[in-house]
Specification:
single chain; 104 residues; alpha/beta; Transcription Regulator spoIIAA; 3 helices; 5 strands; 37% helix; 31% strand; globular
């Protein structure tokens, strides 16, 4: 399923991106473009992956790059993990939760 991205500014000033659908290599370019759009806002960044139905290593690599870019300018990335257990398990196996703050 093609991903959809909704971006809005939080009251705190942070950028919130809500993602639904698949975050796989097939859709990596559009995901990267949306991440870059949020990065240009120069604020802390929160991504809700609650409604993501599939994810692969490409999406994880893009999240790690975003985290590194934000960290280099002293900003923070927070992720709300997917509800779908298989996708959530992939995030855990990748070790992403050790470098990025996950919301419960």
């Amino acid at each position: 399923m093609k991903p959809e991205f909704k971006i809005k500014k939080q009251k705190s000033g942070a950028c919130l991106m809500t993602v639904t659908g698949d975050l796989t290599a097939q859709h990596s370019q559009s995901f990267k473009e949306q991440l870059e759009k949020c990065l240009r806002q120069g604020s802390n960044f929160e991504i809700s992956l609650k409604e993501v139905t599939a994810m692969d290593v490409t999406a994880i690599q893009l999240l790690q790059c975003m985290r590194n870019d934000l960290k280099s300018i002293e900003l923070m990335l927070t992720i709300t993990p997917p509800k779908q257990e298989g996708v959530s398990e992939l995030l855990k196996k990748s070790g992403l939760q050790h470098i990025i703050q996950l919301k419960s």
